[in-house]
Amino acid sequence: MDLPYRLGKYELDKQIGKGATGKVYHAIDTFSGADVAVKMIDETVLHDPEFNEACRKQFLNEAALAGHLSHPHVVSILEASVTEDSGYIVMEYVPGGNLVRHTYHDNMLSVGDVLQILYKCCSALEYACGLGIIHRDIKPANIMISSGTNVKIADFGTAVFYKEQITMAVTAGTPSYMSLEHLKGGRVDFLSDMYSLGIVAYELLVGQLPFEGDTMDALFDAIANKEPVPPSSRRSGIPPELDRIILRMIEKKPEERYSTWAELAAELAKLGRFITSRQTIPDSEKFGTLRSMQALRDFPDPEIWELVQVSKWTKLPGGTVILREDEPGRSMFILATGGLRVSREGHLLNVIKPGEFFGEMAYIQRGSDRQATLEAIADVVIAEFTFTELEKLSTSCELRLVKALLSSMTDRLITADIRIVRMHG
C-alpha cells in the first residue's frame, strides 16, 4: 500500500504494527480530526478457501459485539467492514506502543508494575467474558500502553480468524501464547485467554518464554509435555507466591487454572499489597477499595476504573488537617482507611469512617466554602477527586456519582436529625 492512503474518511499515513492477519496503520479521521488505528486485513486471509461467507458474517457479528465493549482497559472498536476483496477495522489509537518492548532483558518492568498490568487485564477480560467475548489472541503485541501501568487490550473482534492464526501466525510467534486446547483445535473459552495472559506475564517477568522450540514441532511438544521453570529461578526478587500464581495460570489442563477471573484478580491484588512500596498505593488496591464501598455498589466495574483514573491517593499521618472550614472547596474525597474528626469552631460534629465521602458539598454546590474542619484521628489513606478531573468522567459515571453523593448526604442529614431529637428529647 502506498502511503498516504485514503480509506473512506480515514487518511492512513504510516504503518505502526503488523499481525498474523494484517497490518495496522495510524490514520486521521478527516471528519473529526481524531487519531485512529486502522487494521487492514491481508488479502491472503480474505481469499483463503476457509474464509467463506459464514466467516465474514461471524467476523462482522463479533466485531459489532466488540464494538459495544466500553472499558478503560479495552481498545475501542469504532468501525469494521469486510467484503470479498477488502476488510478493515478502525480502532481507538493508543500512542504508547505495546508491551513487546518490555519483554527484553534490558527494558523489563518492575514486579509491582507487572502485577498491576495483569490485574487490569483481568478486569478487562472478565468484563468481555461477561458479554460473551473471548479474545483468543492475548500476547504482548495486543496489549497497548496508555500511560504507566495503564494498558488497553487491542484486537477484540479480530480474533475470529483464530482458525487461520495457528498456521498463518507461525512467523509472528503467536502459537507461543496459545493454550494446548487452542492448538489442538478444541474448545476455546476464557481459560484459554487466562493461559495466554499467564505466558505474557511470565515473559514480562523474566524476558523469556516458558516454552520454546527451534521448530514448530519442538514448540508444540514443549507446550504439551514440558513443565515450566518457575519465574523466580530466572529473576531474583520474584516472590514464591507469584511463581504459584503464574504457574497455575499456565497449567496445561484448563480445569487446573483459576476457575474465574475474579479469583485470579483477588490473588494478584493481595500479593500486590505486599510487594508495593509503603508510599505507593497500587491501582489494584484503589479499585478494590472503591469496589467494596456500599455507596458505589451500583457502579459497573468499568466506571469504578474511571474513578480510579481520575483520583489521587495519599497516605497521611494522624493529626493532619485535611480540610479547613471556610476555605474554598475544589475537591471531594473518599476515606479509604483510618478515621477523620469533623469539627466546626472547635466543636466535634461527626467522625468520618472508611468508605465514606467527605467534601462533597462543594462538588454538589460549586463555589461554596468548606463547612467544617476535618482532621486525621490516626494514619489515613484518602482519595482526592478534583472537580477538573471529575469533568473527565463519562456521563453515566458522573450521574451515578451524583446519585451516590446525594444519597450519602441524605443519610447524614437523617442521622443528624435523630441526634438532635435525642439531645432535646
Draw up the topology in text.
Elements: E1 5-7, E2 10-18, E3 22-29, E4 35-41, H1 43-46, H2 53-66, E5 77-82, E6 87-92, H3 111-130, E7 143-147, E8 150-153, H4 162-168, H5 180-183, H6 190-206, H7 216-225, H8 240-249, H9 261-275, H10 283-291, H11 301-309, E9 312-316, E10 321-323, E11 331-337, E12 340-344, E13 347-352, E14 357-358, H12 361-364, E15 373-376, E16 380-386, H13 387-390, H14 395-424
Antiparallel strand pairs: 1-2, 2-3, 3-4, 4-6, 5-6, 7-8, 9-16, 10-15, 11-14, 11-16, 12-13, 12-15
Helix pairs in contact: 3-6, 3-9, 6-8, 8-9, 10-11
- Tell me the structural class: alpha+beta
Report the CATH C-level class of the largest domain. Answer: Mainly Alpha
Overall mean pLDDT score? Answer: 87
The shape is globular
* End-to-end Cα distance: 83 Å
Sheet with most strands: strand arrangement: 1-2-3-4-6-5
For the record, the CATH architecture of the largest domain stands as Orthogonal Bundle
- Uncertain ranges: 160-173
How helical, in percent, are the residues?
25-40%
According to CATH, the homologous superfamily of the largest domain is Transferase(Phosphotransferase) domain 1
The description of the largest β-sheet is: 6 strands, antiparallel
CATH fold descriptor of the largest domain: Transferase(Phosphotransferase), domain 1
Characterise this structure:
With 425 residues, the protein is an alpha+beta fold. It has 2 domains: 5-275, Transferase(Phosphotransferase), domain 1; 285-424, Jelly Rolls. The protein is 37% helix and 20% strand. The strands form 4 sheets. A 6-stranded antiparallel β-sheet has the order 1-2-3-4-6-5. A 4-stranded antiparallel β-sheet has the order 9-16-11-14. A 4-stranded antiparallel β-sheet has the order 10-15-12-13, with no helix packed on it. Helix 3 (111-130) runs antiparallel to helix 9, helix 6 (190-206) crosses helix 8 (240-249) and helix 10 (283-291) crosses helix 11.
